[in-house]
Structure formats: structure tokens, C-alpha cells
Amino acid sequence: MKTIIIATKNEGKVAEFRALFAERGFQIRSLNDIDEDISIIEDASTFAGNACKKAETIVGYTGNVVVADDSGLEVEALDGKPGVYSARYAGDEKNDQANNQKLLRELENVSDEDRKARFVCALAVAFPDRETEVVIGTCEGKIAQEPKGDHGFGYDPVFYLEDKHKTMAQLTSEEKNEISHRANALKKLEEEWKEWF
Ligand SMILES: O=c1nc[nH]c2c1ncn2[C@H]1C[C@H](O)[C@@H](COP(=O)(O)OP(=O)(O)OP(=O)(O)O)O1
Ligand SMILES: [Mg+2]
After folding, report:
1. Which residues are identified as catalytic?
2. Can you name the CATH fold of 2-192?
């Protein structure tokens, strides 16, 4: 079986990628399986820029094909925030619950129809011997009035999917993997890169 390195320490992402890549005949390893203590400063102004930085840094360590994911939430009423700062929206310690509480506070007086949001995922694939590829996947929804559900990670409990009448955290992992920004990005990568899959 082919092995891919996923340049992330986020176990929520790792679980989703494990399933998404298993369907395609790959097994994955993440930064949590690699001994080195690697920290990457995500200082680019775009998801794509940060994803490339993560993937290219790790290719230097492993010599394997590396996939990196930089993702986040864009809220229309907040002019696209938290955007690339999603992970640290409520502070440097990266706390999902604090991020969700801050988001709900910011939208306290915003009506249902003005709570449009989208998840964005930039996937970068870096190779030891050719140029990095990047694709973007999105998933449209709204910010709920209160958190619901306990699957998934991050902003899933406050991300409401109108046609499912559920938050992302109320979906099973299989259901999320059919519609998520991450799944959509991977589908694009597969379409553009048939020979590699
Ligand atoms: O499917 C998702 N469901 C809910 N929330 C999500 C999702 N996808 C990204 N998010 C949120 C979590 C975090 O607040 C930020 C990602 O930040 P991001 O820097 O890409 O990831 P991270 O720092 O957790 O791990 P790493 O950089 O090691 O991959 O967007
Ligand atoms: Mg990060």
C-alpha cells in the first residue's frame, strides 16, 4: 500500500484523512507519528500559502510525498473572519470551545439570514522532485445560534448545514466525509492528478 505523510498535528484532520485516503488505497502517517519536534509558523496571508509552507517544510525532513491542509472558517458578516486565523481566533493556545464561544458572541445580534459561512480547505502536495500542487475545497453553511453535536472537531458544532438541518458535529464521520471542504479539496486533487492516484 502506498504511504502518504500528512503534515498536520491535528488528530481531527488525521482521522478524516485516514478514511478519505483509505478509500483510495493509501495509508497515511502524520506529524504525530514522526519523532522530530517540528514547528511551522503559519504566517502566510492565504490558506494556500500556509498549506504550501507546511508541505514543503516536511518534504525536507522526509523525502516522501507530503500532503498538508490549511483550513478554516470564513463568516460573511465578519468580512471573512476568522479566516487564516481560525485556529487561534480566541487566543494562542488553540482552544476549539473558546473559539466557538467567541464566534457566537461576535454574531450575537446577527439574524439567521445574515449568518452565512463557509469552511475552506487548501490542500498542498509537495514532492521531493517536482513543483508543489495546491487545490481549494469549500463547504457552505451558516453559523448556528448555539453549539450542537459532538462529532468532528473545531467549529463543527456551530456550523449548520441547511439542507441536512444539522450541524456538522451532528453528522457521522462518514457523512461529513461526503460533503466537507476537505473531501471536496481531495476530489479536486484527484481529478487534476489522475496519474498520481
Ligand atoms: O472540518 C473542520 N471542522 C471544524 N473546524 C475546522 C475544520 N477544518 C478546519 N477547521 C478549523 C479548526 C481550526 O480552528 C482551523 C484550522 O487551522 P489549521 O492551522 O489549518 O489547523 P491546526 O492548526 O489545527 O493543525 P495543523 O496546522 O497542524 O494542520 O480551522
Ligand atoms: Mg495550524
Report:
1. 70
2. Maf protein (3.90.950)
